[in-house]
Structure of Dehydrogenase:
Amino acid sequence: MIRPRIAVVGAGRLGGFHAKLSAGIESLDLVAVADPSEQNRNAIAAETGAEAVADYRTLIGKIDAAVVATPTVLHFGIVKELLDAGVHVLCEKPLTPTLGEANELVAAADASGAVLQVGHVERFNPALSVAAPRLRDPRLLRCNRTSGYTFRSTDIGAVLDLMIHDIDLVLSLVRSPVVAVEAMGLSVLGDHEDMVTAQLNFENGCVAQLNASRVSFQLERTLQAYTSRGYVGVDFNTRQTTVVEPREDVLRRGFHVDALSADQQAHLRDNLFEELLVKTTEEVPPVNALEEELNDFAHAIITGSAPRVTGADGRDAVGVAEQILLKVEEHRWDGSAEGRHGMFASPAMPVEEPARRAA
């Protein structure tokens, strides 16, 4: 087997992870790390044995594949140039800031025949893999993704930084067109939204409620799904899956509370999640999801198969994110077109203390 020669473009924190993992994957040959920062690229090159270069363009013709882990605003130009040269690309999420740019990249990949994969790494979380068989036909989905402010990815807001993961997850599970979007968001620390809540209505009747915050004191990455067969909860942090499966007579709508005696009601009240709504929990062993993602990328290149998260998947997630951002911008805090709107719930000016009431 000929190992694809791969480079990592972007020597920041995430690029460093990709480079170190790529260096240890037998099916990949890490040859270079590219970054304008001499200090960053040299540090990662020293750890991995790869060549350090300032400009990724000098590698075209010398590599078969690349991981692009630069700031989002740089994705389009870099990925487009690599795809046009026939280089396979794994681009970190989000694929691009806009749907128009994402469409161009998908078209470029189709024209060149190169693999375009998008780094929605949550698809490789082992808890999701365990839950997947029970996540068919979701009717209601709730996603919460919150963390503290990392001072990274400041070129984008919470939708493209955090919520994009859950947008991709929801689209992959529902597989139906989005017909309506509602959203509102708040800017707290910068010029982009830091907190967002959104609701997606799908053509097949499914509803998804998404919440994301990067200014939260709580770390949470969870998915709750209500299907025609029961409930599935996934905690992506702890890799724990919780399933609630109603008894068959409950599913058939043959269970009637009013028909129970007082003793039967008391018994089921104490044993609700053992006998009536049967609850089970499973925690799966840790898996390096980023490494699994890179293995999937290598497999797609070598075999010619589609990666788990295609360029089209990444594009569709960006398309929905764009709709959410539009709704955030349209939100009127005062109920009128003349008042406050968008992510700025308060004006950018000193807040005056209310006048103290005279004694």
The chain is about 35% helix and 25% strand. The mean pLDDT is 93. The CA atoms of residues 168 and 316 lie 8 Å apart. The first helix runs from residue 13 to 24.
